[in-house]
Specification:
The chain has six helices and seven strands. It is α/β, with parallel strands linked by helices and about 200 residues long. It has a seven-stranded mixed beta sheet.
Length: about 200
């Protein structure tokens, strides 16, 4: 049976204003150094319920909904990382000291790309905006990973350092077609700037 959809609120995030107000004009005059009104944050996308066992086909389920997006898992019980550790995934946990360091992120990502397995970024209760630490590895790496352009034209090879094993320098040794990215959070209301760019699931 296909995973069921969890109903989400559709309340509008647009503020209402009475006729004749000059709210927008005032916002442009002050407060913002660039002279622009602050944009509303993206809305939380629909969330699909999934069982712990269903995580074995998580990437396939995400591809069915949108092949251009990776899965984000809301895990209130904190069991998802353990599940993936037993499935030979590269799991990094934000709440462990040093797990999101530049070198650990680079090596974990390259290894997942080479051996065709998931890279799981378990943010725990931390703000998911911390995934932007990927940009410390390489400029705009988060964007190229989320929109999957990192996998095109062997672009991922820019992550390889001279001291890495020779196999890492040759795309013939990579299994990028089996690679996947999974972001996990225990926050029931995750950062929508990241969540809006992913296909969202909630473990039930």
């Amino acid at each position: 049976m296909p995973p069921k959809k969890v109903p989400t609120s559709k309340t509008s995030s647009k503020p209402t204003a009475s006729k004749g107000t000059t709210v927008k004009r005032e916002a442009k005059k002050g407060g913002n150094p660039k002279g622009e009104a602050a944009a509303d944050p993206p809305q939380m996308p629909p969330v699909t319920a999934i069982s712990l066992k269903g995580l074995s086909t998580l990437t396939e389920e995400a591809n069915k909904q949108d092949p251009k997006k990776w899965p984000l898992v809301i895990d209130l019980q904190g069991n998802v990382s353990t599940f993936f550790k037993y499935r030979d995934a590269n799991v990094l946990q934000a709440e462990l000291p040093g797990d999101l360091s530049v070198e650990k992120l680079r090596v974990a990502l390259l290894g997942a790309l080479r051996f065709g397995k998931p890279l799981v970024l378990d943010m725990g209760s931390r703000d998911m905006g911390e995934v932007e630490k990927l940009n410390d590895v390489e400029k705009d790496l988060l964007d190229s990973l989320l929109n999957k352009t990192l996998l095109e034209d062997e672009r991922y090879l820019t992550l390889v350092q001279p001291g890495d094993e020779k196999e890492y320098h040759n795309s013939a040794y990579y299994a990028t077609d089996r690679f996947s990215l999974v972001v996990v959070t225990t926050n029931p209301s995750p950062n929508t700037h990241i969540a809006s760019r992913m296909t969202c699931f909630k473990v039930e």
